Amino acid sequence: MENLNFHKQKLYSLILAGVALISLLLPWFTVSAGGFGGASKNGFGSWGLVALIGVGVVAAACFMGDKSKVFDEMGKKLALGGFGAIAGGAVIYLIRILTIGSGKYGGVVKTSPGLGLFLGLAAGAIGLLLLLGIVKVPKSIDDKIK
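The structure assignment produced for this chain is given below.
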């Protein structure tokens, strides 16, 4: 693979933003009406749009400045805000599903969170932990030899 000249912190942030973007395509909640089938909805709506904006902010922060160096102060703040928006949008969406969703129509209509919601929440949380330094960027074998 060709050398992309990305610093590892920016590369991992960009990968997590890509995972969050893919999570928006997956179901964020499913609705089932007893034995009559059901439907699902992806993250491109409501509070999922906050997560989409967060993906754009993280991607923009990764391409700002020198890509081969660690985030500068402003880039780090932008990326933290983007990951916060991804995680925050997913958390608010989850709270709405769990509190509002299952009380309609006498309990016949059930809603449940989907895989995309949890994947987006995980991508946002891991991105925050990575940029705050709580989770360290793994070192490759080449870095240990130098």
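Interim note for the steering committee: DSSP finds five helices and three strands in the chain. The radius of gyration is 18 Å.
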